[in-house]
Amino acid sequence: EAGVTQFPSHSVIEKGQTVTLRCDPISGHDNLYWYRRVMGKEIKFLLHFVKESKQDESGMPNNRFLAERTGGTYSTLKVQPAELEDSGVYFCASSHGDIATYEQYFGPGTRLTVT
Amino acid sequence: QKEVEQDPGPLSVPEGAIVSLNCTYSNSAFQYFMWYRQYSRKGPELLMYTYSSGNKEDGRFTAQVDKSSKYISLFIRDSQPSDSATYLCAMERSGYSTLTFGKGTMLLVSP
């Protein structure tokens, strides 16, 4: 069974540009999460989808971040316009809807560098 | 005060040693406690989870939770060089599905 996949693995963009990150969860997992780790800090929650609905987006830093999960399958996270402080590693995780959601499976992350 | 405190290390031990990794937390609402292992340039991998207080053992790994002290531990017996990684504690409140992480402790096991 394939794990959580993320694309791209690394992105370098200039301040003011737009970047879109993609996450493909484990097949059949209704729950999809986005997390971010800024250098020197802990991994922090951004938002949680249940199928295509946003269950909790309390961790989204501001309105420059837009997450979508059309059709309840893969998800995208768009940053527009990117700022220097957006640099970090963005992780996606998924969990099965019928199993306690603390069993989250993480992807390898997308390393975003804003210059 | 951060919700979860974890010493970043690095913690260096010889092969075969018993390793003790710890986290403290401040939010008494946390009910689920997880340990993740993360190798360089990889995503966190769930090692163990425990509900409320108590111990849980899985092979060479033992997780302990002491809710009265707000303190959790992960013990690794007979540590191996392949155990060298960053170990992250994470916690979740009952009824919520978001994880709150510690910063992670880097463990180095030398042959």
Explain this structure to me?
The complex is a heterodimer of chains A (115) and B (111). By secondary structure, chain A is an all-beta fold. Chain A has no helices and eleven strands. Chain A has strands at residues 5-7, 10-13, 19-24, 31-37, 43-50, 53-56, 65-68, 75-79, 88-95, 105-106, 110-114. In chain B, the strands form two sheets. In chain B, strands 2, 4, 5, 9, 10 and 11 form a six-stranded mixed beta sheet that branches. Chain B has 111 residues and is mainly beta. Chain B contains no helices and eleven strands. Chain B has strands at 4-5, 11-14, 19-25, 30-38, 45-51, 54-58, 61-66, 71-76, 85-93, 100-101, 105-110. Chains A and B meet through strand 4, strand 5, strand 9 and strand 10 of A and strand 4, strand 5, strand 9 and strand 10 of B.
How would you summarize what this structure contains?
Chain A has 115 residues and is mainly β. Chain A is 0% helix and 49% strand. Chain A is built from no helices and 11 strands.
